[in-house]
User: Fold this.
Amino acid sequence: MACELGKAIRQKEFYHSEDYGFTNHGAWGTVPRRVLDVQKRYLEEVEQNVDHWFRRSSDKYVNAAKQAAADFLGANVANINFVENATRGLNSILKSIPLSPGDAILATNFTYNAVANACRAASAKSQGTEVVAFNITFPISSREAFIKNYTDFLDAHKNIKVAVIDVISSFPSMLLPWKELTAACRERGILACLDGAHVPGQLRIALEECGADFFVGNLHKWSFCPRGCAVIWVHQAHHHLVRPTVTSHIYDKKQPFPGDFDLQGTRDLTAYACVPDAIKFYHDIAGGWDEVLAHNCSLVERFTEDLVNAFGTSQLQIPVDMRSPFMRHVKLPELPGWQGTQDDAIKLMNTLYEKGVLAAVECIEDELWLRISAHVYNTPEDYERLKSVVLEMAEIK
Ligand SMILES: Cc1ncc(COP(=O)(O)O)c(C=O)c1O
Assistant:
């Protein structure tokens, strides 16, 4: 039965401390009480008879979890497996793709740092290969202009073998025209690898129809799973190609994916086992897609406007249809003593934290920006609190 979103669901279903205004869901996600309770029960069950758990029960739980994740993401269960996080999944994919001298991996100047490093490490494995970055600058006039610039870049770099495409980027957070970019890559024979770290729970997706070659998405960000839970999806045509970064028991099979992502040494499988309960929470307690979308979008839109007006600044200059569903950017006002550098962005985030507000701060094009988020537990007070801390620091009355 759905709970009223905002204050009611926060008090009843989440552990959040009242000492903080929490608008940084995009960083680590958050786990509801009842999902954590399920995980605690699994952890106890493991210890009651650890042999039984690993030999008998875990398969049953993890297989049910795979099916739940596949249903949630529109995937055929035969094309997915679990990995601990998006970083690990993307590493596995990128390091599995054979590169020849002259080949390039395509990222952007805003590819998530760990993923950009994975691209570099994958390229470093094969001599004579490189990572090229598509440069995103602001303002972005339209989706169509963005797609054209990207495809022009593809045409100017004939050596691209694989492109890492953010579906929803992190910082700045944008909903990229990923379907069009994927299609443009496929038309040119380029493998499309979707970084969907922020997708499950934030964007409805049907993986079997996504048109890409590979996808990795975190279940521990927006869909309430315990941390250490992500899905890797590989198009059937590439099952022979993709191997986990960690070589373990299953190695010599002709069709390694998804099987050899299963037995990855001794590890905690309880986060995976919780997937059906987390998805049930999303649908039954939080109200499912429509209710979550309506609540989060209206909250994040309303308070982006509100903060922009109060600060006398602007939101990121991107087309409305490239705004990410539950995250937005607000330019910070002049803050005495603070510069538009990445160092100051990190320090400022810590200062905000000490003042009781949790929001991401980054430097974009030499200016400091806030990234705010909305999820089912957020209330207007979270953003009001953020606003008053920033206004005080900016000495704006
Ligand atoms: C766009 C993007 N890709 C990949 C990741 C990596 O996710 P994880 O830390 O769960 O591996 C993140 C994390 O925030 C991200 O924002």
Remarks:
- Residues 85-87, 112, 114-115, 166, 169-170, 195, 197-198, 218 surround pyridoxal-5'-phosphate (CB under 6 Å).
